[in-house]
Design brief:
With 200 residues, this protein is α+β, with helices and mostly antiparallel strands. 23% of the residues lie in helices and 34% in strands. The strands form two sheets. Strands 1, 2, 3, 4, 5, 8, 9 and 10 form an eight-stranded mixed sheet that branches.
Length: 200
């Protein structure tokens, strides 16, 4: 079994998660990579991806597990030769563990360019020194409030880039929701990059 690290950058970042899955599976088919299929009335390719990223967010750290007999290097070369713009395999390796990545992901790291690092540094200090941090965002049903301090692992300003590591997977905190509330400004989600996904 192989684990492939995938990019989901422009224009693929505007694909829904289902369309992203379809794009990955169709690329595997175009590359003529032999993979394992499920059994039953409606067989499907056995490929498992990490939980979906918000629509528009660009990522260098999407993961997929694929049951195939070819080497990681061959998989990467054949996939990238026929993949669509924005979706590439940047790394690939062989594993023997369980394929359910969604249950294993614990944190994700993001980067976003900022205009006023000194002001944001002060905001970060206040947030990280607090025992609780309540954020609010709009939903179809109205405003929603959520206590998120325990989901903020780290935040740091490096030059004009804000780096933050947040809980992911089953205890997910969306970076765009946190940033829009914390900085009190509309940040384009396409300007947020997911750079790492960490597993336990």
């Amino acid at each position: 079994m192989l684990v492939a690290r995938l990019t989901k950058t422009y224009p693929a970042n505007y694909m829904s998660h289902l369309d992203f899955i379809r794009a990955v599976t169709r690329t595997i088919e175009r590359a003529k990579i032999s993979v394992k299929y499920s059994v039953g009335f409606n067989p499907h390719m056995e490929i498992y991806l990490t939980p979906p990223s918000p629509l528009g967010l660009q990522s260098f750290s999407e993961y997929a597990t694929v049951y195939t007999d070819i080497t990681p290097q061959e998989f990467m070369e054949r996939f990238n030769a026929v993949s669509v713009s924005g979706i590439k395999v940047s790394d690939c390796y062989e594993v023997n563990s369980d394929s359910k990545l969604a249950a294993k992901i614990k944190t994700a790291t993001y980067e976003v360019k900022i205009k006023n690092p000194e002001k944001i540094t002060e905001i970060i200090k206040k947030v990280l020194s607090s025992d609780k941090y309540l954020i609010q965002w709009k939903t179809r049903e109205g405003l929603r409030n959520c206590e998120v301090r325990g989901k903020i692992i780290s935040m740091d300003v490096c030059g004009d880039v804000l780096k933050l590591t947040l809980s992911a997977g089953n205890n997910n905190l969306r970076a765009d929701r946190l940033l829009n509330f914390m900085l009190d400004e509309d940040i384009n989600i396409a300007d947020i990059y997911k750079t790492e996904s960490d597993f336990n």
